[in-house]
Design brief:
elongated, disordered C terminus, nine-stranded antiparallel β-sheet, single chain, five-stranded mixed β-sheet, 373 residues, Immunoglobulin-like, 25 strands, 2 domains
Length: 373
């Protein structure tokens, strides 16, 4: 989107706070994606959900150990607070519900020939508006620690984030640890492997986990992690978010997706403000009496410098009627505001109203043009 902002200056010759995981199942899959998960720089379509109605919902977890305040949750069992869901405290060993539904071919492909059960699969198309897409999540399971290394087991629940589209070979699972640490799974994130990303949460009978509701029901969970993929700006991609039981339909696991975190690096939004010296509405300046300060503000990508062109048009004439308007302005790294001052010249000529039109064209990575006035 080619950001374009327009200002016109007329010249006139005048002398709750939560402490327990809370879930809900009233929102549709479409609403959960569009109104909860979706952030900036991404549009979504063709939203589909395949799984038990009780395995998908919204959550709020402020002041809990989860690390994410709100979002959507998919489980291999239930999100309902009936003693078998993910809500704390962690006062059960092997909490879970068998929904008696099938598994996922994609997830079975991650682990070989082992049978999967109780799959919850949320998928949709999306268009990113930069070269990167990302979202944040936590994976938790009641199969920790009993079925995690060093215990060898075929009962490790599995999940994945599968992306496909232009520039991506086949279907890729982007549920990966940082710095090439491998796939996020019970076998690869636990007290023995990649423990820096793991949180032990009791075993269902340990204090304080079994009495304080700030702890969730799952015996272990990851830190807040980020799924990231390179994409092509403006192209259509497909994302499948899936989780399933492995080996049997018991001992639940869940994925918590952070609200508004499905995002693509968005173009900087430039806004402007005119100083109070302007004579009156609509943006009049008296010749020879005052100056006007134009302040531009950016809201993203603050770590890098940004140069914004300033295009000037209108009936007023540079030098004869005004001065001080630069050809461009630059935000240095860390700067959120940049200002410049317009000096209006008293030329002594009775010429009626004249105007200055300032355009600030700013392109996004897709090269689209969207005028903002």
């Amino acid at each position: 989107m080619f950001k374009k902002l327009l200002i016109v200056i007329l010249l006139s010759p005048f002398g709750n706070a939560y402490s327990q995981l809370v879930t809900g199942t009233t929102m549709s899959p479409l609403a959960l994606v569009q109104n909860v998960l979706l952030g900036q720089g991404v549009t979504v379509s063709n939203i589909l959900y395949n799984g038990s109605p009780v395995a998908l919902g919204s959550f709020q977890a402020t002041n809990t150990v989860l690390g994410i305040d709100e979002g959507i949750v998919l489980t291999t069992g239930t999100v309902i607070d009936n003693g078998s869901g993910p809500q704390g405290p962690n006062n059960q060993t092997g909490a879970g519900v068998d929904n008696n539904i099938g598994g996922s071919a994609l997830l079975s492909g991650l682990i070989g020939s082992t049978q999967t059960y109780n799959a919850a699969i949320l998928e949709f198309d999306f268009i990113p508006y930069s070269d990167t897409v990302r979202f944040k999540y936590v994976f938790g399971s009641d199969e920790y620690p009993e079925f995690a290394p060093p215990n060898n087991s075929g009962f490790n629940d599995v999940f994945g984030f599968f992306i496909s589209g232009p520039g991506i070979p086949g279907i890729q699972n982007i549920a990966q640890l940082p710095n090439g640490g491998g796939v996020v799974s019970i076998n690869n994130v636990n007290v023995n492997n990649n423990s820096q990303y793991f949180n032990f949460n009791g075993d269902g009978s340990m204090s304080p986990y079994d009495s304080n509701p700030m702890y969730i029901q799952y015996d272990g969970f990851t830190d807040v992690l980020e799924a990231v993929s390179q994409v092509q700006c403006g192209q259509t991609y497909h994302l499948v978010i899936a989780i399933a039981d492995v080996g049997d339909g018991e001992w639940d696991s869940g994925i918590f997706l952070e609200a508004n975190s499905l995002s693509s690096l968005t173009p900087v939004d430039i806004t402007y403000e005119l100083s109070n010296e302007i004579y009156s509405e609509p943006n009049w300046i008296a010749e020879g009496c005052v100056t006007a300060t134009v302040t531009l503000e950016r809201d993203a990508n603050l770590g890098v410098s940004l140069t914004v062109p300033v295009d000037v048009s209108g009936s007023a004439t540079d030098i004869l009627d005004y001065s001080g308007i630069p050809t461009s302005i630059t935000f240095n790294p860390g700067e959120t505001q940049v200002s410049f001052t317009i000096d209006v010249v008293l030329d002594g000529i009775i010429e009626g109203q004249e105007n200055i039109v300032l355009d600030f064209p700013l392109s996004d990575p897709c090269g689209n043009i969207t005028p903002v006035t």
